[in-house]
Amino acid sequence: MGAPRNGKKKVVLVAMPGSYLLDVAGPADVFTMASRVAAKMQGKDTAGYEIILASATRSKRVVSATGIPLTCSVRVSEINFGVDTLLIAGMPFAFAAQIPPVFFTWLQEHQRQVRRMGSVCVGAFALAKAGLLDHKRATTHWEYCDQLQFEYPLIEVDSSPFYVKDGSIYTSGGISSGTDLALAMVEEDLGREIALTVARKLVLHLKRPGSQLQFGQSLPPLELTSPLVSMLQPWLLQHLRKTLQVEDMAQQANMSVRNFGRVFFKETGLTPAKFLEKLRIDTARKFLSETDLNIELIADKCGLGGAVSMRRVFLRHLQITPSHYRNSFRTSLARAIA
């Protein structure tokens, strides 16, 4: 397809029907700011990026999730110029029928000609459908990682990182993770100094602390699907600060330990001990974000030992400390809960 004549790297952002604007606008603003910073710091206009908005559908007009229409300059299937980077935005699964097969064929045929292909949020499902994630490590929005793994078992899905690079394929997590990925690409292309300057100007972290796991609940709403959890969870929440054993849980459920463990795992996919640990973590997160209770007291109320022990648990499960979690997610209306 040839190299760009103006020296700028051509970045194609693929708008999908129903995409959130941030899926597209986040990376676009990062690359645009990088071009301006590079021109100023390096004294030339040839460095940086040329942004091209492309449609995955048969129409160049794509309506976003907000109802704001995006007018694309080209359809992906019509691209006949050199592409450095291609990023696919996410979209509601209900709109999948609007994406013609020629789009996935184009991805397959041009993978080796495009220096790097990537996705934002559930745009990973488009890469997966094209077979580009087979036998690769990838991520997507934390809510849909299990679905991606189930539908495409050849992928090594990792729900933790904000973005993943495997060879020339890049995937990012939830919507705002597209900006994290774009910043990483800028650092890869233009160096840390320029990427850091871009992050500062856009008031972003160059590398965001923690992981995607800090945004989702450790436990899905199992009380809706598991009769055993529905019956047992209120009792567990009242006794979290105690040292609970599987035997205590089985006794409360009026079941033998062996039968309790078997039924519990069948209904939840978790051992009772693992469920209890995750329940303690989610409860601690609620206290951190909604109250002024100190971390030592929260650890005690949730059965997580002391502040040091709670810190270890948070780092293991969420890759963030309780203090950082509180600073990131605490509500401005926080009040103590007795």
Helix-strand blueprint:
Layout: E1 9-15, H1 21-42, E2 49-55, E3 61-63, E4 69-71, E5 74-75, E6 85-88, H2 101-110, E7 116-119, H3 124-129, E8 137-138, H4 145-151, E9 156-157, E10 163-166, E11 169-172, H5 177-190, H6 192-201, H7 227-238, H8 246-252, H9 257-268, H10 272-290, H11 295-301, H12 307-318, H13 322-329
Parallel strand pairs: 1-2, 1-6, 2-5, 6-7, 7-11, 8-9
Antiparallel strand pairs: 3-4, 10-11
Quick structural gist:
With 338 residues, the chain is of the alpha/beta class.
Fraction of residues in β-strands:
5-15%
Task: Tell me the number of helical segments per DSSP (H or I, 4 or more residues long).
Answer: 13
- End-to-end distance: 66 Å
Biggest sheet descriptor:
7 strands, mixed
Structural class by secondary-structure content: alpha/beta
Runs in which pLDDT lies below 50 for 5 or more consecutive residues are 333-338
Query: Helix and strand string, N-terminal first?
Result: EHEEEEEHEHEHEEEHHHHHHHHH
Please state the overall shape, judged from the principal axes of the Cα atoms.
globular
C-alpha-based Rg, rounded = 23 Å
Going across the biggest sheet, name each strand in turn.
5-2-1-6-7-11-10
Quaternary structure: single chain
How many E strands? Answer: 11
Question: Mean pLDDT score, rounded?
Answer: 89
The level of helicity is 40-55%
Describe the structure.
The chain is α/β, with parallel strands linked by helices and 338 residues long. It has helices at residues 21-42, 101-110, 124-129, 145-151, 177-190, 192-201, 227-238, 246-252, 257-268, 272-290, 295-301, 307-318, 322-329, and strands spanning 9-15, 49-55, 61-63, 69-71, 74-75, 85-88, 116-119, 137-138, 156-157, 163-166, 169-172. Helix 11 (295-301) crosses helix 12 (307-318). It is globular, with a radius of gyration of 23 Å. 38% of the residues are buried.
